[in-house]
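Why should sequence recovery work at all? Because a backbone constrains its sequence more than one might expect. Tight turns favour small or flexible residues, buried strands favour hydrophobic ones, and helices have their own preferences. The token representation captures these environments compactly. In the example below, the structure is given first.
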């Protein structure tokens, strides 16, 4: 290769690097990893740990993580919520971020029981909200809105149906479910923490 060809090659490489650096600096979100929506969260109305109504209006314009658990679970739920506390501690006090923990067992998990559970977790329930409500509505949200459980799992009657999932959903400010994470895998929890940071940086009108 001639000296002239080498010069032009190096020149265009340098020019490309300079253009990329300028774009990262001057264009908000240029270098952010974009997540394509998995699904859209439908309308909902539940009851929080304080016995107050909680609906779509309370998450409008916020980034949040949704999960399902039940307070008497002896298996994966304590592990999941210990892991979720990593997310909580990372973003505790950050405006525009919430965690929503829905019960899988609303017959036992009253608002008062959820309040007791939240107190045992030592978390601020203005940011980590615990929800109960009608079983069919809770399960429909998990399967059709958050897509963290297969709708085909509801093979029996409502009385026999039980949802038990270790998966979490990340939801953006517009109610789009962006990604599903395994709440038992540290690598995926670390990725969730990073993805939340990217979403919180995004402008409201993205």
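From this structural description, the recovered sequence reads:
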């Amino acid at each position: 290769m001639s000296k002239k060809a080498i010069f032009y090659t190096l020149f265009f490489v340098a020019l490309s690097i300079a253009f990329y650096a300028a774009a990262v600096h001057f264009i908000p979100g240029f270098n952010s990893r974009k997540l394509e929506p998995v699904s859209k969260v439908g309308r909902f109305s539940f009851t929080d740990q304080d016995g107050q109504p909680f609906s779509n209006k309370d998450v409008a314009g916020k980034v949040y993580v949704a999960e399902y658990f039940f307070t008497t679970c002896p298996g994966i739920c304590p592990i999941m919520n210990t892991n979720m506390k990593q997310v909580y501690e990372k973003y505790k006090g950050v405006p525009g971020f919430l965690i929503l923990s829905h019960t899988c067992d609303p017959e036992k998990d009253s608002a008062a029981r959820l309040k007791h559970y939240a107190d045992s977790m030592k978390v601020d329930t203005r940011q980590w909200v615990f929800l109960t409500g009608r079983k069919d509505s809770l399960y429909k949200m998990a399967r059709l809105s958050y897509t963290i459980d297969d709708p085909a799992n509801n093979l029996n009657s409502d009385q026999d149906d039980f949802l038990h999932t270790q998966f979490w959903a990340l939801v953006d400010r517009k109610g789009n479910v962006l990604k599903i994470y395994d709440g038992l895998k540290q690598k995926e929890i670390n990725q969730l923490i990073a993805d939340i940071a990217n979403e919180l940086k995004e402008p409201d009108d993205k």
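A few observations help interpret the result. Residues 5-33 have pLDDT under 50 and may be disordered.
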